[in-house]
């Protein structure tokens, strides 16, 4: 059963957002782990509002992704990297056929037809998407690359902050390699 909802922010329970024709308009079917919603907003509008909700606008997220991974088309979006909320589009985000899928929730995917892929999510539910296997595979890889690069940077920043906060310096060997080499040569003579 789908619940009607006016406002929606993508969260850690959101698995995917599907475009749905509702009369002459495009609405969104939002599928979470345990519940589905119907929103009068387009999928891209939900993605944009969710980026804003977490403090960064969609265009900035797009630009950041381009800079980090070097792709320009169908780029994944880090909606909220600290909570591992990364979504990828199945086609051009401006297309009325574009689904947005949560990278974290995808457990497995397999080819069903030339333009059909069955995705099994972490909650063991499977859904058929009108998208080629190659597209899903490529988008999963792009999103993994984005996630890895962003999380590495966040981890490095945390480490730097720890060093600065406690006045620590990265550990170094207690002796230089030249001294070590000299000691070995003395022992041999």
Account of the protein in words:
The protein has helices spanning 43-53, 58-69, 133-166, 177-188; strands at 2-4, 14-22, 25-32, 36-39, 77-80, 85-89, 100-102, 106-113, 116-121, 126-129. By secondary structure, the chain is α+β, with helices and mostly antiparallel strands. It has one domain (2-188). Strands 1-4-3-2-7-6-5 form a seven-stranded mixed β-sheet, with helices on both faces. Strands 8-9-10 form a three-stranded antiparallel β-sheet, covered by helices on one side. Strand 2 (14-22) and strand 3 (25-32) form a beta hairpin. The longest helix has 34 residues, at 133-166. It starts with a strand and ends with a helix. The mean pLDDT is 88.
Uncertain spans, ≥5 residues at pLDDT below 50? none
Q: Please tell me what the overall shape is.
A: globular
Distance between the termini: 84 Å
Give the amount of beta strand, in percent.
25-35%
Radius of gyration over all CA atoms, rounded:
23 Å
Mean pLDDT: 88
Please provide the count of β strands. Answer: 10
Strand order of the largest sheet: 1-4-3-2-7-6-5
Structural class: alpha+beta
Q: What is the helix/strand order?
A: EEEEHHEEEEEEHH
Question: Percent range for helical residues?
Answer: 25-40%
Number of helices: 4
Number of domains: 1
């Amino acid at each position: 059963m789908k619940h009607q909802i006016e406002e929606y922010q993508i969260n850690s329970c959101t698995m995917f957002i599907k475009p749905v024709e509702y009369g002459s308009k495009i609405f969104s079917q939002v599928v979470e782990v345990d519940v589905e919603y119907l929103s009068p907003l387009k999928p891209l509008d939900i993605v944009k509002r969710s980026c804003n909700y977490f403090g960064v606008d969609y265009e900035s997220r797009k630009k950041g992704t381009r800079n980090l991974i070097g792709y320009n088309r169908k780029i994944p979006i880090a909606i909220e990297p600290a909570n591992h909320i990364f979504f990828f589009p199945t086609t051009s985000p401006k297309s009325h056929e574009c689904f947005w899928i949560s990278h974290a929730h995808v457990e497995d995917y397999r080819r069903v037809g030339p333009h059909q892929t069955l995705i099994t999510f972490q909650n063991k539910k499977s859904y058929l998407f009108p998208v080629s296997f190659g597209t899903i595979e490529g988008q999963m890889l792009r999103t993994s690359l984005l996630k890895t690069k962003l999380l590495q940077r966040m981890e490095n920043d945390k480490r730097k902050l720890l060093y600065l906060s406690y006045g620590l310096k990265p550990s170094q060997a207690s002796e230089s390699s030249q001294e070590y080499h000299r000691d070995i040569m003395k022992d041999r003579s």
